[in-house]
Amino acid sequence: MLWDQSVQTLAGVGHQWGSLLARMGIHTVWELIHYFPLYHEDRAQLPSIKTIAVDVPLDATVSVWGCVSGIDHRNAVSRVQLTDPSGTLSALWFRQPHVRRLFRSGQRMYVSGKVHWDDRQGARVIHVSDYELVTTHTPTGLTPIYALVKGMNQRKIRQVITTGLSETMDTEYLPNGHVHAYMGWADALRAMHFPNHLKMYQTARHRLAFDEWLWFQVATQYQKRQKQAAQTSEPLSAAGTLIRTYCAQLPYTLTAAQQRVILTIQSDIQRQYPMNRLVQGDVGCGKTDVAIAALLMAVESGKKGVLMAPTDVLATQHYIKLSQLLTPLGVSVVCLKGALSARDRQETLAQLAQSGPLIVVGTQALVQSSVLMHQVGLVVVDEQHRFGVLQRLALHDKGQFPHALYMTATPIPRSLVLTMYRDLEHSIIDEKPPNRQDCETVYVHTRNAHNVFEYCARYAQAGRQVYVVYPVIEESESHDLKAATAEYQRLCDTVFSAIPVGLLHGRLSVSEKQTIMTAFKSGELAILISTTVIEVGVDVPNASIMVIYHAERFGLSSLHQLRGRVGRGSDAATCFLVANPKTPAAKQRIKAMVDTSDGFEIAQRDLTIRGGGDVLGTRQSGMSALFRIADIQNEDPIRDDAGRVADAILAEDPDLASDRYAGLKQRLEYQFDALLYNQLN
After folding, report:
1. What per-residue string of b and e applies to 546-574 under the rule 16 or more CB within 10 Å gives b?
2. DSSP string over 449-508
3. Which residues pair with 574 in a beta bridge?
4. Distance between CA 170 and CA 185 in Å, rounded?
5. How far is CA 32 from the centre of its chain?
6. pTM over 0.85
7. Which of 331, 351, 332 lies closest to 340, judged by CA?
8. The predicted structure's pLDDT at residue 400
9. Is the confidence at residue 673, as pLDDT, over 70?
């Protein structure tokens, strides 16, 4: 079976049709037989000609059966009269002279196209986009309808797929004991294209969804086992003394969820292979305390603990907080970020290169090749969704396979999918401290933004504080977005003229940012106009209103993180999404934010909108080509079935070396060649 052979080698394809198939993303036979229909049209239930002529609205796309009762070719238009027992309707072809030779009176045919009004006839007509002359092979029941490019037609793609299926079909590739509850693989693949009835299609879809889950779970488990065998970590044996001392000095008690996650991490770091755990917790649930506990485990084991934050502001806040809390415990804390003097940088680098316990806080500066760190036991990536895959991997390279902990309120789709596939261990902090307030989210069209700003002005004059966030710093001819600097000046001159307002953005120096944030925290500033530099790590309990302008231009993770800056005090919080969403994805993001404040639900919605990413590679979003059938958020029973079968297969034959699993191995090699081919051989 040559799945990777060119489709042009199939009978009836050749160069011309092969070029059109390539434009559809079909180059190989595997891609051809997995090019599934958009939907199936039930040709046994098509409307009558009278229904189309009377009831169907103009511009609607319809399909109909009829017999040719008249043919008229004038200029570039071919007009065919179609008749059925209910009436007569004209079907029109434009600039297709070849169709003149195809039709004859009395011939039965099927046509599909848009309904238009014809002034010449004073009646509805169909502008034909697809047609088929009735033969013994013409489908009259469920008929696959595919997405096409110009020049391709439904008849041809069905013919080519039929050829591809007939030349590549083989027997079931899994032992019967693993798939007795599902349709056979070859039968399922054919039924996805040409089912006899809807139930057969659903049964086929379940089987192919099972296959997709199985292939990926076998591949990820195999890859994970290979990594664990090749990447041994020194177990950390922290007794927990520092953690108990740290917790004792806190003015509050850790929630049961925080304590549960800390115990899980303690168990992970005592293993011979690296921990790879995602800690997911909604904004304000106390992830930072969990991260500090993990860092203290490394220190107590005589190692370095590294915390990477996405911004200078957040890294500085972490450094100040950790220094204040941990220095009294005898724990040294250093900070490495871009905005350091040459002298401070050299001193910090020298400390990192030395042996001994230390906590290192920093930004992306930590992953630079010039930064050498000795005896790194654990790395923590805070606000994981803000970093790229390669940045996170580069931090791991600073140690000899250190234990890794990722912290996020809204994980990137790729990470959420990896937790579903058991390649990334997952902990959830599902409790919030008792002082956290719910936040009401309100969508406001940009044309009504002035009402929001007037509300904010009244609110600020009453003694409360407000964030106003814009997507860009300055205006530009390349976009039509409102910018923070220009809007700061405009609002200060108008609706906020009697209110102390600050401006914060990424081009300010670190000291300028700190001065502005200090003024806002102290209440000296009532309104802070900013870009997304306040997305993470900013904690001002008196701020209870968040305005996000051009909210349709932000991702769900950013919107949820920004919303999390308010509701940290005793007052009820409100987040205004000022937007004009035009694309379906933008409308879905706004709706998700209005519908829920649950970070877990937000992450699921983000997964639905953006897709799961390249989960064996580095792409962080976008639907993986692997999952054409499986619903990566639902279908839990099918996914669980596949997981049990994957476990059983790898327990029986860890290297897939036996003939019993030759078919599975063949499919895995085809799907995951770049990562698995050499290892599986």
Report:
1. bbbbbbbbbbbbbbbbbbbbbbbbebebb
2. HHHHHHHHHHHHHTT-EEEEE-SBSS--TT----BHHHHHHHHHHTTTTTS-EEEE-TTS
3. 440, 545
4. 9
5. 26
6. no
7. 351
8. 66
9. no
